[in-house]
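Researcher: Let's try something more involved. This one mixes different molecule types, so please make sure each is placed in the same coordinate frame as the others.
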Amino acid sequence: MITIAVDAMGGDHAPQAVVSGCLEALKAFDDISLILCGPESEIKALLPQDASRIEVLDAPEVITNHEHPTTAIRRKTNSSLVRAMDLVKQGKAQAVLSAGSTGAVLAGSIFRIGRIRGIERPALATTLPTVKGSPVLLLDCGANVDCKPAYLANFALMGSVYMKGVMEVAQPKVGLINIGAEAEKGNDLTKSAYPLLSESPVNFIGNVEARDVLSGVADVLVCDGFAGNMLIKHTEGMASSMMQMMKESFMSTTRSKIGALLLKPALKSFKKRLDYTEYGGAPLLGVNTVVIKAHGSSNAKAIASAVRQARQAVKGDIVGAIGRELSLMAENE
Amino acid sequence: MITIAVDAMGGDHAPQAVVSGCLEALKAFDDISLILCGPESEIKALLPQDASRIEVLDAPEVITNHEHPTTAIRRKTNSSLVRAMDLVKQGKAQAVLSAGSTGAVLAGSIFRIGRIRGIERPALATTLPTVKGSPVLLLDCGANVDCKPAYLANFALMGSVYMKGVMEVAQPKVGLINIGAEAEKGNDLTKSAYPLLSESPVNFIGNVEARDVLSGVADVLVCDGFAGNMLIKHTEGMASSMMQMMKESFMSTTRSKIGALLLKPALKSFKKRLDYTEYGGAPLLGVNTVVIKAHGSSNAKAIASAVRQARQAVKGDIVGAIGRELSLMAENE
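Model: All components are placed in one shared frame. Result:
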């Protein structure tokens, strides 16, 4: 049985969406049990009488997006997020899931759980859809805005382990996000990271330009947290901007309106392909347990996907595998 | 009469596309004359007998994308690009247009023409379409991959002047590309640039997240050349990836195929909105003349748009206006 500690108060639609998503996930998988952390009476009121494999741990405090992450983690020890993290520390759960403040999830992971030995900085990884159908893992997406070249080599290693263990990609192709294909191109960071990645044990395919992020040339793409955050937000914004521009074009004539009506199911399936709720949350890689950060605006479906992802990451022993890869590297040095 | 020096050998489809685009532009505007720089006989063979307001300046050498830009500019003084730049230096033209190597256009502009006094680094600016219909100017798009905070303040000023003079936007709203809305968010560069932009005479609206690049909240967006290059390439790549995913959805059933057929004209108008050839080239701002870098894959229409843009930049006296704004700023300090 895999036990996942859930921050029931994290996210814009908490606790309703979180609880519904958890119940959905319990139906789908019979090898998981969940511990919901949050104000006991409020959470219990949302659970059916006969709910099994799910319990509530009372956590009366809530950490909001408006608080300083580190201070909040230190002071609000009775918050839903801190109590969820402590469950892992106490060995009572193997994974943490939260749709709350990214900064607080990051601070909590570092201060309450700790990093894997040999990892300088944990990274937030996001899965994006590609034209080829297979997803691509982009990291870092915002945990480390300014990076040293060595961090990017860590990201490449962690991303590879994740894609092997969770997404079952045999030899994940790792690309370095850059502004040119040639090795000598880029800014100070990418120019210094390139040789480190070439020497690293990952399957490094070289520089990948931003135009190929969604084309499926790589399984893992590494960059600093500023670039990664920009890329995911631009992907999100552009999808919605393009949809809006397209809608305007489609509503312009009677002919196009009829066409759009006929295309409704196809447009829906297309939208689904771009829908982040299908892909779960962002794993925070490099901490000593499985941590999944779900999108702040997660609905029940997105939470259920994130639970599935947490389960898969525990089954794939991501944390152990990252540690083993690092030991192997250290031995070879 | 405005005279524009054209590098007839720049770009993937040179010289045919360049010459055709120039002839198209001459038809549209009777207040311009063009000097095509390239191998004389080759270029003359592409011109009609009775062509007026267009002449050829013999330039037998060509600078390719595979050469080191600075070396090429220094050695190939008989190249189409260097000869076009020299025409401006000699006062025989008021603008240069090239679809050739970005690095060579940049090196040539700095070494053969020179910067505007007070501008540390010229920047490449790109126009992108927005949901609101009005375009947004993004700079720098790759001339300076690593930037100091002061460069970003220069970019903001130059971008504002350009949007006023060429796009006729009265009070251009300037945003700083960042990974959070609050002033204290970002990496070392954006955190230091924020106060400089706040004090600058531009209409600074604060941080703009990548999800809003195409939403039309700003008229000018500034960032370092790494981020800017990434954003334009990601826009390009995502548009094409989305189109491909959409096409797959549309071709999935008979119903959707009929819908797609009816939508053909609407899809075409939508594609046109995203089409870079409609928007001309990228002005290189901060050099002592108007320099327009057209896309390497420019067709005749894109070249004609770039000529129109060069004409507008000369008429709007962009170079003079940037100089005047800088003097005003210096006086107020």
